[in-house]
Amino acid sequence: MTSTLTVAVLGPGGIGGLLAALLSRSGHRVICLAREATAHTLSGSGLQVRSRQFGDFGAAVEADTELREPVDACLIAVKHTTLDAALTRVPPAVLGDALVVPLLNGVEHPASLRARYRPDRVAPGVIRVESTRLGPGATGPVVIEHGSGFVETDLTADTAPRPRVEALADALSATGATARVVEDETTALWAKMAFLAPFALLTTRYGVPLGEVRTRHREELESLVAETTAVSRACGAPADPAQALARYDAFPPAAKSSMQRDAEAGRPLELDAVGGALLRAADRHGVPVPVAARLVEELRAAGH
Ligand SMILES: NC(=O)c1ccc[n+]([C@@H]2O[C@H](COP(=O)([O-])OP(=O)(O)OC[C@H]3O[C@@H](n4cnc5c(N)ncnc54)[C@H](OP(=O)(O)O)[C@@H]3O)[C@@H](O)[C@H]2O)c1
After folding, report:
1. pTM (2 d.p.)
2. Residues lining ligand 1, judged by CB closer than 6 Å?
3. Are 157 and 193 part of one and the same domain?
4. 2: which of 67, 231, 232, 268 is 20 to 30 A away, CA to CA?
5. What is the Cα–Cα distance from 17 to 185, expressed in whole angstroms?
């Protein structure tokens, strides 16, 4: 049986809002940490989820602009572009010995979180889902649209106490989501990164969905997958280019990356956390990545 947890969620957006609503519906105490306007709306009207997997439901959550009391875990669910500003809402002294569970894409944020909070409480995870926050409007709840029909979270416990990470995974699993504790943080983070980077960089650079990347930019896709898997391996995470390509080929042709959606909507991109981090890791390990370097440069030159 799962015990009742108190979980803070920094950034109740697409993923944070979905997990906050699921945990609250399951009976856990959830405190969403957000900017003033969002915190105000959440306190009054809560979260409303529209989900292919879980149906439509409302969930009441507490909300604040800053963490003011100890919690069992703090999920970090902002984008990289706002991570530093958002973390000021989670003072290390208040957080105490709570687990810090970042779910951002990318590979560099765990080091900065370990520099800021207790390194032996940082338990990075990766999440596979498609979930978008709509609104909030002037009135009414914050609406989360969960479109993927699944939500899968891999948590890691390389430095954090495994039983506590397992308790969080159990709590997430009991909501109906899929959650597990996996063995190796580097492998988990790079598995996501190695899939995401080619998909995000190519769809965003050319402004086309994955199907067109597969056909019109096949050679570049294959080169980029080879570069990314080489960097992943150099960082200590196994990666297989043939398997990666097979995964892209199995995706629906209309699939778009979230970086591409951000570009279309004029929002800041997580380009540095994905492309920038890939180039920095390649440089550290002396792995040549000419295609990745050109794509990142072209995206930066385009003002991203
Ligand atoms: N969405 C997905 O399907 C998905 C899937 C896998 C991985 N990811 C990764 O998960 C991470 C989060 O993505 P997301 O799509 O959930 O982002 P999102 O929908 O944009 O949500 C980010 C949240 O952060 C909040 N925020 C921004 N600045 C803040 C600040 N200074 N203080 C407190 N809160 C702040 C935003 O709320 P306000 O604007 O109201 O402040 C928003 O609720 C990213 O790294 C993304 O790559 C997302």
Report:
1. 0.96
2. 11-16, 34-35, 38, 77-80, 82, 85-86, 89, 103-105, 127, 129-131, 133, 258, 270
3. no
4. 67
5. 24
